[in-house]
């Protein structure tokens, strides 16, 4: 008996991907069996990362999300989004959030999908934890650390998601100080200069 | 009326510093008024970082601690210790733990005391968040990123704590695989090679 919500005949729609994005990682087996995970393409995983970015935006936070999958099974091992605002967390970006969610696993057989090009801290964490592959969904809004990751032996693929790029551009226009804090800390913002 | 436990006449003993180490940061005003914090020396703050490392070790974790203080008031703004084991957290080192504890503050007027020389991720986070000063309590067990921090304009001081160095050496001898995982991830450990 198949006890999961999504099976081999389920169409992969935006609603299906958004349900996956919002479900706690440990509860994902409630949604999908392994054979369903195998049907998800790289573009689908990037959509989940972007839908996590939307979740963060809707919570009043910075819209960046990330998903980590096993290269063989395609199962999701970790996912998350930026929580600078939501947790008052000064460096929990999409990537750090997804890695924290995955916990103490061997990242050398995994791929991380991030909705935005990684910052220096996240790029360093990606090579220090031995990721084999990183897929970047937006090098239009920011870029630069792809070369560092490649120099460390990580396969880096660009798979831009136009909706994600649009969302990040909207956020940057609406909240430039928050965006600056997310990259460079309170020390870099006008709020500091005014104090 | 002075309602704090420690006042201007309290001797700064190991027990006093250990109580400070264990008290949640937001509850530190219960222990000490501002004038007490001013009496604590750099060496005292490093002792607190090392006592946090001992706390982590006693919990079965990696013994590295860190403390963040305001440069002017000398008040503790954040502190913590490595929680790789305790939280199954793949990158919560002493420094990341203390920065998470401090939250969304301006780190440009703060000093971070770490019981061990920072890894690549923590060193990157320290300059990305604009710390003005970092004090390192152990460059015997590990070192290397002091030069990077200085190149980013951060004042780096070495203030070795022999008890902290001894604790870290004991941990390294007892749990070499755990120590390796803490620096380089599961991908670098024997556990991975055996799978």
From TrEMBL, chains A, B:
<dbReference type="InterPro" id="IPR016193">
    <property type="entry name" value="Cytidine_deaminase-like"/>
</dbReference>
<protein>
    <submittedName>
        <fullName>Cytosine deaminase</fullName>
    </submittedName>
</protein>
<dbReference type="GO" id="GO:0008270">
    <property type="term" value="F:zinc ion binding"/>
</dbReference>
<dbReference type="InterPro" id="IPR016192">
    <property type="entry name" value="APOBEC/CMP_deaminase_Zn-bd"/>
</dbReference>
<feature type="domain" description="CMP/dCMP-type deaminase">
    <location>
        <begin position="40"/>
        <end position="156"/>
    </location>
</feature>
<dbReference type="GO" id="GO:0016787">
    <property type="term" value="F:hydrolase activity"/>
</dbReference>
<keyword id="KW-0862">Zinc</keyword>
<keyword id="KW-0479">Metal-binding</keyword>
<dbReference type="InterPro" id="IPR002125">
    <property type="entry name" value="CMP_dCMP_dom"/>
</dbReference>
<dbReference type="Pfam" id="PF00383">
    <property type="entry name" value="dCMP_cyt_deam_1"/>
</dbReference>
């Amino acid at each position: 008996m198949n006890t999961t919500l999504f099976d081999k005949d389920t169409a992969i729609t935006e609603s299906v991907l958004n349900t996956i994005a919002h479900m706690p990682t440990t509860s994902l087996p409630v949604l999908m069996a392994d054979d369903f995970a195998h049907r998800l393409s790289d573009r689908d995983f990037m959509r989940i990362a972007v839908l996590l970015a939307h979740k963060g935006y809707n919570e009043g936070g910075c819209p960046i999300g990330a998903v980590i999958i096993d290269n063989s099974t395609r199962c999701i091992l970790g996912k998350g989004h930026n929580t600078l605002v939501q947790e008052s967390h000064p460096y929990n970006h999409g990537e750090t959030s997804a890695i924290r969610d995955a916990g103490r696993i061997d990242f050398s057989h995994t791929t991380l999908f991030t909705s935005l090009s990684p910052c220096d801290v996240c790029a360093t964490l990606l090579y220090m934890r031995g990721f084999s592959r990183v897929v970047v969904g937006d090098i239009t809004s920011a870029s630069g650390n792809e070369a560092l990751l490649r120099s460390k032996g990580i396969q880096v693929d660009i798979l831009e998601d136009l909706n994600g790029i649009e969302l990040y551009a909207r956020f940057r226009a609406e909240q430039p100080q928050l965006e600056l804090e997310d990259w460079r800390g309170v020390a870099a913002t006008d709020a500091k200069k005014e104090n």
